[in-house]
Amino acid sequence: MIEIREIKKSYGNRENRFQVLGGISATIADGDFVVILGASGSGKSTFLNVVSGLERPDEGNVKYDGRDIAALPDNELTAFRRETVGFIFQQYYLLPDMTVEKNVRMGADLAGNGDYPEILRAVGLWDKRQKYPAELSGGEQQRVSVARALAKRPRVLFLDEPTGALDEQTGRNVLDYIDKLHEQYQFTVVMVTHNENIAKMAHTVMRMNSGKIWQSYANDTRKTAYEIGW
Questions:
Q1: Helix (H, G, I), strand (E, B), or coil: what is residue 73?
Q2: Bridge partner list, 10
Q3: Residues forming a β-bridge with 204
Q4: With the C-alpha atoms ordered 191, 194, 199, 200, is the resulting torsion angle positive or negative?
Q5: Which of 133, 130, 131, 128 is nearest to 96 (CA)?
Q6: Which pTM does this prediction carry?
Q7: How far apart are CA 88 and CA 71, in angstroms?
Q8: Position 61 pLDDT exceeds 90
Q9: How deeply is 115 buried, as exposed, middle or buried, from its count of CB atoms within 10 A (0-12, 13-18, 19+)?
Q10: pLDDT tens sequence across 132-181
Q11: DSSP SS3 for 212
């Protein structure tokens, strides 16, 4: 369980200090599929970065099973990110001089996971494991980034606009892979998006505005990536 209590985050100096997160509290259950909605500038990406340990809050607590990662020294926070969480962003951040297999193996090696070929098969890229990123489509590159993140065997997978650079059909395919892998491996998903339709795939939906969560609710029924609008 992730317990978030009164986190605040600002940027800038004294004269131009700008508060991005204004005291957010929330709880995310193990195995949940959470979608965070909000317009650009609402603070959703900063919230994701703080909850995942990429950034520290100015105030407040982010507890994983009672352990406050906001209070960890840098070396322990780095170890936490390596061992506990995975990240998928709108940009793929693949190493261009490495094959698909080697890119994914990078994530696997961080966790000592020798079963990374299973992940490659799960995302449908086993036959392209010796290809380089430049030889793949955008959707295939995003699936490599999904496989690399999951090869770490994360407890929590954080995604920031994972379909933002993809066309509709490719975006649906990537979301479908993520959803199926979530069901198979039972990790927690926390996804930031501006696409309202994707929220219909979630267990829990949080809506942000002006650095705060103004609405949180659970979907009675979930839709698949091919059932939602776009």
A1: coil
A2: 19
A3: 34, 218
A4: negative
A5: 133
A6: 0.90
A7: 25
A8: yes
A9: exposed
A10: 999 999 889 988 998 898 888 899 999 999 888 788 888 888 899 889 88
A11: strand
